[in-house]
Amino acid sequence: MPxxxxxxxxxxxxxxxxxxxxxxxxxxxxxxDYHAKKDSDRQVxxxxxxxFIYMKKRVPSIDYGxxxxxxxISGLNFQDIKIGDKISVGNDxxxxxxxxxxKCPKPCIIYKTVGECxxxxxxxxxxxxxGGEIKxxxxxxxGKR
Length: 145
Description:
CATH architecture: Beta Barrel
CATH class: Mainly Beta
Order of helices and strands: EEEEEHEEEHHEEE
Number of helices: 3
Helix content: 10-25%
Largest sheet: 8 strands, mixed
CATH superfamily: PK beta-barrel domain-like
């Protein structure tokens, strides 16, 4: 079953820091996170654990949050993910996938180090349809539109 591997937040722009739990606000994003914005299509950012591990092998010094992601989720198949699909987390939170991939405005330090970044292909962005608390190890369910 898919689950939350880690949650990362930062009130400032840049890399995010791991936390044990966070409040996800409907149509906003995570409380106290830089990217929380009303009506945005990128209120929550997700990386799948397999993609993070791939980059960690190439750049051992990176840690969760290095790509500005809010959630690392294990157990989801990237090939199954489509825009408009929903991810339910824990007992309350419902996210809707709005964007897959992200054009980076300028090369980040990771790209400069290894010549690639995973966000342009594997970054998953969502809006919050229903808020609530998310904790590390919460289970996720994934559903089609």
